[in-house]
Design a protein that fits this description.
Shape: globular
Distance between the termini: 38 Å
CATH topology of the largest domain: Neuraminidase
Radius of gyration: 20 Å
Helix content: under 10%
Number of domains: 3
Low-confidence stretches: 1-42
Number of strands: 29
Order of helices and strands: HEEEEEEEEEEEEEEEEEEEEEEEEEEEEE
CATH architecture of the largest domain: 6 Propeller
Structural class: mainly beta
CATH superfamily of the largest domain: TolB, C-terminal domain
Number of helices: 1
Strand content: 35-45%
Mean pLDDT: 82
CATH class of the largest domain: Mainly Beta
């Protein structure tokens, strides 16, 4: 269930700092992008810093690839950064060098100054590699999953309890949902959503006080998708006998059903909804093969014809992240060795930033105008 860091044959630091000089110069040729659907303009935060992990530290960069700098610098491994909804704090995972030792959660301000370190409560262990996500109101942090004490990446027991931490005080309370809970995250409406099982199948909802537990869907994997900003739907990928290729679908959060947004024959996966809810960015394999290659496509949120952003840039088939104003989109190149930032509407060339050994986490800071 846990994504483990991967390292290439070439030392990542050599690649990273060799590329850093080029990034500082900020050169790049303009290219023509595919025409994208009309964007609905709504008030949105300004773009802050894109955060990602590389090796054992967290780095931040501007949306145009400039201003790259190290956010953490310790002898431990910091991974999986997530900005708070208001952009003033970052939560990240502190991974011990010994995988037998549980991880912990660190909260830092926007300058990297540590405000609080959160350790698991009694009877709960954090996996060495994990992530903690903010609730929509920025009040709580919730780990993506929790283990019984003594678990390892090779042998662990996923708990049915969900620990919820107050971001200001560090105090916690737990709720028991009765089934192993994985991929725990907050919905736009403030409830917690989660899947279960090795395939993260199904979608359950529960309030942060443990009330109103209900199952929304039984069959759609919930490990690679996103919620619409209004909280009415979860967009995911469907496969199985009813889907010759993986299709993009919308799961109604009221339980009323599943609607296909983008049908085959292409293999479409990992949809990410734009901040204003008007567009969906997703990786597509035109051949219909699960092995790719995958390229970034856009489609209106109600479905329709998808258009490529740049069919020369191959990406990983996982959920990327939109910039807060919806002008840029960040994803990973194959092998997770680089972060690539696409200028969705402006027409600038994609920017590539080395991030070998990353845990596949990207988070964009929103800055209030």
């Amino acid at each position: 269930m846990q994504t483990r860091a991967r390292y290439g044959a070439v030392p990542w630091a050599v690649v990273f700092f060799a590329t850093l000089a080029l990034l500082i110069v900020g050169t790049g040729a303009a290219i023509a992008l595919g025409q994208s659907p009309q964007q609905t303009h709504v008030p949105l935060p300004k773009n802050g810093l894109l955060a990602f992990d590389a090796g054992t530290d967290i780095w931040v960069v501007n949306d145009d690839g400039t201003g790259l700098r190290q956010f953490t610098a310790t002898d431990q491994a910091e991974t999986s950064p997530y900005w708070s909804p208001d952009g003033t704090r970052m939560a990240y995972w502190l991974r011990p060098t010994d995988d037998r030792v549980p991880g912990s959660i660190v909260i830092a301000d926007a300058n990297g100054v540590i405000l609080r370190t959160i350790t698991p409560p009694s009877g709960v262990a954090f996996p060495p590699t994990g992530a903690a996500l903010w609730t929509a109101d920025g009040r709580y942090l919730v780990p993506g999953l929790e283990w019984a004490p003594g678990g390892t990446d090779e042998s662990n027991v996923v708990l049915s309890t969900i620990a919820i931490f107050d971001a200001d005080s560090g105090e916690s309370h737990t709720i028991d949902v009765g089934i192993p809970a994985v991929q725990v995250r907050s919905t736009p409406g403030g409830q917690l959503a989660f899947g279960t099982g090795d395939s993260d199948l199904g979608l359950w909802l529960v309030d942060t006080d443990g009330q109103n537990l209900r199952q929304v869907n039984w069959t759609i994997p919930t490990n690679q998708g996103s919620f619409t900003p209004d909280g009415t739907s979860y967009l995911g990928q469907a496969d199985g006998p009813d889907y010759p290729a993986r299709d993009l679908v919308a799961i109604a959060m009221d339980g009323s059903g599943v609607r296909t947004l983008v049908p085959g024959p292409a293999d479409d996966v990992s949809p990410a909804v734009s901040p204003d809810g008007s567009r969906i960015a997703f990786p597509r394999s035109k051949s219909g093969s699960n092995d790719g290659p995958f390229h970034l496509y856009l489609v209106p949120s109600q479905g329709g014809n998808a258009v490529p952003i740049d069919d020369r840039v191959e990406i990983e088939p996982r959920v990327g992240t939109w910039s807060p104003d919806g002008s840029h989109f960040a994803a990973w190149t194959p092998g997770d060795e680089q972060v690539v930032i696409f200028d969705i509407d402006g027409g600038s060339a994609p920017v590539f930033i080395p991030s070998p050994g990353n845990n596949g986490r990207l988070s964009w800071q929103g800055v209030t105008p």
